Amino acid sequence: MSKKLKIVELGDKILRTKAKAVSVKGIKSKKFQGLIDNMIKTCDLNDGVGIAAPQVNEGLRLFILWSKSNKRYKKVPSLGPIAIINPRIVSSSKKITKAYEGCLSIPGIRGLVPRHKSIDVEFITREGEELQITLEDFPARIFQHEYDHLNGIVFLDRTDPKDLVTEKEYQRILKM
Ligand code: ZN
């Protein structure tokens, strides 16, 4: 049975610490597969579209990408949940797009964040396979946000302070 994990919030040092590579030998272990299942459950119960291991106090290069429409994100493409292990961004488009992001570790705040429109990435799946894929638009944005978490970066670091809004204000902007 998977369980909901506690999410650490801005100010916790683990969110500012570079995460360590996952040992490929351990991927199939019950403990690691259990962590993946718990992260998926935690993401779902918090209406997230992604969650990185440091957010649940595990300093590992692992995140969940789960693009789906919910209360916090409307009208987005469906993709995932996929466990992304030891990811690498191989190349990124020159084209940059700005859109609002939030973070389960930074409740109540949204900000406009510039991200590459498309990226070529490689990572290891929870089955232990190496995969190379191209992501565009919203899923590419989630990937870049979660990837940042593995390097101790949060979206606020990439946002112009003038582009920060409260959750309430964000909901009003969505309706305009
Ligand atoms: Zn986040």
Write the layout of secondary structure elements.
Elements: H1 30-45, E1 50-52, E2 62-67, E3 79-92, E4 96-101, E5 109-116, E6 118-124, E7 130-136, H2 137-150, E8 164-166, H3 167-175
Antiparallel strand pairs: 1-2, 2-3, 3-6, 4-5, 5-8, 6-7
Bound molecules: zinc ion.
Residues 103, 105, 145, 149 line the site of zinc ion.
Brief synopsis:
The chain is α+β, with helices and mostly antiparallel strands. 22% of the residues lie in helices and 31% in strands. The site of zinc ion has 4 residues, from helix 2.
Trace the largest sheet across and list its strands.
1-2-3-6-7
**Strand coverage percent:** 25-35%
Bound molecules: zinc ion
Q: What share of residues is helical?
A: 10-25%
Structural commentary:
It is a single chain. This protein is of the alpha+beta class and 176 residues long. The chain has one domain (13-175): Peptide Deformylase, CATH 3.90.45. The chain is 22% helix and 31% strand. It contains three helices and eight strands, in the order αβββββββαβα. It has helices at 30-45, 137-150, 167-175, and strands at 50-52, 62-67, 79-92, 96-101, 109-116, 118-124, 130-136, 164-166. The strands form two sheets. The chain has a five-stranded antiparallel beta sheet with strand order 1-2-3-6-7, with helices on both faces. β6 and β7 (130-136) form a beta hairpin. It is globular. The mean pLDDT is 95. Zinc ion (ZN) is lined by residues 103, 105, 145, 149.
